[in-house]
Amino acid sequence: MTRKILIQLDCDQQPSTFDAVVAVDAGAEVLLRHGGVTPDTVVPLVHGAMFTRGGTDLASTAIFVGGSDVTVAEAVCERVRQTFFGPVRVSVLLDPAGANTTASAAVVAAGRHLPLHGPEAEGLRAVVLGGTGPVGQRVARLLARKGVAVALASRTVSRADAACARIGEAVPDARLEPLAAGAAACDAALREADLIVAAGAAGVRLLDAPGRGRAARARVLIDLNAVPPEGIEGIAPADKARVDGAAIVYGALGVGGTKMKIHRAAIGRLFAANDACLDAEDLLAIGESLEAR
C-alpha cells in the first residue's frame, strides 16, 4: 500500500512542532520536515514530491506550507504552484502561523449567530480590530466575500488602507473601510457593528469595557487573543458562545476547537486527490461543511 507522505515546508529555521503533531493525528503516515524554506530553495523539494510517484499514487503525497512569516510563506506557496505542470502535481495546504485555519474558525463561529450565508449578509457590518495582521486580514477577506461591510482597524489608517487594498485585489466587490484605532470614525464603526473580531497581537487590549459599552449593537464578539490581558475586555479565552448581555462572545480557546477540526480535516482532504490547493476560502468551506454535519 502507498503510504501517505506529508512534506512540511516551513519558512522558520525550526519547523513547527504543532503543525507536525496535527499532521500525524490527521492521518499523515510519513512526515518529512524542512525548515528555512524560501521561494529560492523550494523548487527541488517540490520536484521530489512530483517525480517520485505517478498516476493515482501522486494523491498519497502532499505539501503543507507554514511558518511565522506569512508573506514569505505565501511566496513559497506561489512558487510551489508555479512548479507544477499538467497533472504532475500534488495537493497543497497553506496555513502560515495558523492564520487561515484561525480566521476560518472565527467566521464559522460568527455564522452560528449571524446570517452569513445568504443575501442578509449584505446588511451586516463588522469591525476587525488588529485588522492588518495575518489573521485579521483573512477574517476581513472571508467576511467581505460573504458580502459583509467590513471596517478594518489598525494603529494607523495608512496601514489599514494598504491592507484594504490587498483584500480588494482578491475581492473586487468588497465593501471595506480602513480605520485608525481610537479615531472618531473607528468609534462610530463600533457603534454600528453587528460583529466585532479582535485579531491583534498577543497580550494587547484592543477594546476596553467603555468601548464595549459603546458597541452595544454588536451581536457577536470574538477575541482571538489567548494571552492576558484580553483583546476584548471581559472575554475569557475559554468562552464559547457565552451570552454576555445582548451579545454572544467567543474567546481564543472557544474558537480553537473549531480551528483544530478544520486543520485536521484539511490534512485529510489533501490525500483525497492530487490537485487541491487549500487557502483560507477553501478552509472556510471545510469548516462550514463540518458545521453543517
Keywords:
single chain; 293 residues; alpha/beta; Rossmann fold; 2 domains; 7-stranded mixed beta sheet; 10 helices; 12 strands; 41% helix; 18% strand
Tell me what the structure shows:
With 293 residues, the chain is of the alpha/beta class. The chain folds into 2 domains: 5-94, Rossmann fold, CATH 3.40.50; 99-255, Rossmann fold (3-Layer(aba) Sandwich). The chain has helices spanning 17-25, 42-51, 70-83, 99-111, 134-146, 157-170, 184-192, 209-214, 252-270, 280-292, and strands at residues 5-10, 30-34, 61-66, 91-94, 125-129, 149-154, 176-180, 195-198, 220-223, 242-244, 247-250, 277-278. The protein has a 7-stranded mixed β-sheet with strand order 7-6-5-8-9-11-10, with helices on both faces. Helix 4 (99-111) crosses helix 5 (134-146), helix 4 (99-111) packs across helix 9 and helix 4 (99-111) packs across helix 10 (280-292). The longest helix has 19 residues, at 252-270. Helices cover 41% and strands 18% of the residues.
